[in-house]
Amino acid sequence: MRRYFEVTHVVTFADTNVAGNVYFASHLAWQGRCRELFLAEHAPGLLARLDGDLALVTVSCSCDYYAELHAFDTVSVRMSLRERRGGRITMDFDYYLAGRGAARLVARGRQTIACMTRTGGGLVPADPPDDLAQALDAYAPGAPVTP
What we know:
By secondary structure, the chain is an alpha+beta fold. It is 23% helix and 41% strand. The longest helix has 19 residues, at 24-42.
């Protein structure tokens, strides 16, 4: 079992489209929210650096959809580290419909971000700061799962 960081979200009408199901882009917004809450909880010192020279740039994001979600569904968004290679970090996101018996996988996503440093000449690639690297390593494949 992989270790994951989990955020629970209750779907609102703002997340849905005219047809009444969750608009596809909402899943991507939830990826960003999950990632940001992870940073706030596990690497809070990083937030001050984001106002300075550090930038976390989203390089790619995707989502595959398996089942519809609707207003007032409860969704568990579970983020885990897929790989960290230099300053590039790839995370997996599993979306589960929760609150109605056993949780059911309804979507799966992926996002890659790059750590960059702001310079006078623009952005240049950088290694993740130590606090971020340590926080991510706890969610890496093969990391021990603690209850």
